[in-house]
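User: I'm putting together a teaching handout on how sequence relates to shape, and I'd like one worked example. Could you take Cytochrome c oxidase subunit 5B, mitochondrial from Ailuropoda melanoleuca, show the sequence you're using, and then write out its predicted structure as C-alpha cells right after it?

Assistant: Happy to. First the sequence, then the C-alpha cells directly below it.
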Amino acid sequence: MASRLFRVCGALRAVRAGPAALGRGPGPLMGSCRPATSGGMPTDEEQATGMEKKVLDALKKGTDPYCLYPPKACQGTKDDPHLVPSVSSARLVGCICEEDATEIYYMWLHKGKMERCPSCGTHFKLVPLEMP
C-alpha cells in the first residue's frame, strides 16, 4: 500500500533522485525498482497478508468478494428481480423510483422472499453473499 501512495504522490521520484533533487547533498541514489524476489521493493501482492491477501487473490480469480463491481443489469420484474447480496438473512433496501424523486421507499428483504416496491413495482430478492 505504501508503494502505491508513493507512486501517486510522486515521493518515490524524489527518493530515487536523492538529496540532489531537493537541493541538498550529492548525486542521485544508486537503487532501481526491482521485484522483491531480486532484492527490490515488494509489490502490493507480495506484501499483502491476511484478509487483504484473500481479497487480492479473489479479484485475480475474477470473483467479486465485496461487491466492488456494479451489479448486472436486470429489469426488476417478478421473473428478473434486482438481486441484493447480503451476509445476513435480512437487509434494508431503499428504492428511488424516479430520477428526481424526493423520497426513498425503504423495505426489508428477507432470505427466500421477494419484495415489491409499493410505488414503482420493482421487485427485489435477497441472495446470500459468500465472504472470502
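A couple of points you could highlight for students: The chain has a mean pLDDT of 77. The first strand starts at residue 82 and ends at 86.
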